[in-house]
Amino acid sequence: MARSPTAAIRVLRRALRRARGARDPRARPLALQLVQPPHPVARALGLVAVVLLGAWLGLLIVGSVRTPVGPMDTKMTLRPSLTGGTKINVSPLGALELDSHTGPIRLDVDVDRLDPDRSQALVDHPERISGLQDEVARDVEHGTVDLALRSCVAVVSGATALGLAVYRRPRRALAAGGLALALLMASGVSAYATWNPKSVLEPRFSGLLSSAPSVVGNARSIVTEFDVYQQELARLVTNVTKLYDVTSTLPAYRPDPSTIRVLHVSDIHLNPASWKIIASLVKQYRISVIVDTGDTMDHGSTAENAFLDPVADLGAPYVWIRGNHDSKETQRYLGRFKNVHVLDEGRAATVAGLRFAGTGDPQYTPDRSTKALGDPAERLAGIRLASALRDQRAAGTPVDVALAHNPLAARQTDGAVPLVLSGHVHHQEMEVLPLGTRLRIEGSTGGSGLRAVDDKEPDPVEASVLYLDRTTKRLQAWDEIRLGGLGLTTAEVSRHLPAENQPGATPSPSPPEVTP
Length: 516
Hints:
The structure is a single chain. The protein is α/β, with parallel strands linked by helices. The protein has 2 domains: 42-214, no CATH class; 230-498, Metallo-dependent phosphatases (Purple Acid Phosphatase, chain A, domain 2, 4-Layer Sandwich). Helix content is 35%, strand content 21%. The chain has 12 helices and 19 strands. The chain has a 13-stranded mixed sheet. Helix 11 links the parallel strand 12 (354-359) and strand 13 (401-404). It starts with a helix and ends in a 20-residue tail after the last strand. Residues 30-35, 212-237, 239-254 and 507-516 have low confidence and may be disordered. The chain crosses the membrane at residues 44-65, 147-167, 174-195. GO terms for molecular function: metal ion binding; UDP-2,3-diacylglucosamine hydrolase activity.
């Protein structure tokens, strides 16, 4: 049906009014007026996300430097991290991790290869080795400066480029770059404020390096030869250089002859793999004496006794106390071996130059016919052990190391002995008690035994090597050894020093020379 001209004009006017309303915010429909710009908090979070992602991409792409360190070619990189620290990758030998600092960045040092020309120069001119540590220190310093500058460029470029791609506004992109630079500088300040120059004294080894503790020297040389971080790092890298020379036959560990090496094991719980591990550690570390703080068995039954037969062939004297899973029958069976020293009720014995005293656990928990006596029995056993230790000291034969399976009993010996060893709780601890006695709690050298198959994550196999001065009989250092549990093939060794053996402290005196 045809419309009149007047009607057509009215329709056109309504269309024009609608067009003008689209241009006038006041005339827009209510739905369009409700659309608000992004909230400032959301906008800020978006900018932070762009900055972090861009900075990470920049570091990933160009944030590394290749620099020679002595005779080696290395690659240094900064990486985002929640815990900080330094990781030195020595392919194909493994890695060393240092708790050098805390903060949101980690320093990765990849040792790529040993330069044949620079290495040959050292072989041809051995006198240059004396200056190698200074050269390594200078190289590390120059590489760190270059890495800092390149990292600044990397984070600014990455954040700026990503900001430009996201916002398409140069001002926003430059703001992202500036914020990334400020974040990197704040991370650097945090790392500097928490820098720990002694961290190289307590490295964690993994891979093949876990079987070469000589990479950081012996217990005495660590104390007397490392003073500042650059010198420590230089010595570490220098020794790694030596490892490259003999990759196929890693050097055996040569401990300081003035130290007594004690292998502390506990809670084997019928794991047959433990004997091979212990025998390997005895040979690798030249162990003087093995100390087992109990729970070697699971039920202590006569049928289990044959499990103990490998003890006779471990290659070192074996000092043993009863755990709550070991029976008196277990104790009698072990007492038949010539190399085994069974300690109970405070009895003492001198083995490998150390005087040990210990007590068996007062409880035998597999026996369901008797009521468990609980913590009071453990404390009473510890009190009796402490009394025996004081009697030994009064008699002029002081005990160097005390043994009690349960830490509750071990803590009662505080003040009566320098060092007490225990187990039972299946994890490693080192604690100085209020009166000065040092308590060492060992983990499970059997990985909690075959019961570990019930767990989703198998317990690790743990043991420790304790280094004691032959003259003072005091603890100088200890290595914590941690192996993957059932079905796992990982290895980690970390070295620790008592506070009195840290750089700057007076080291234990050297033993007197013995005239043959």
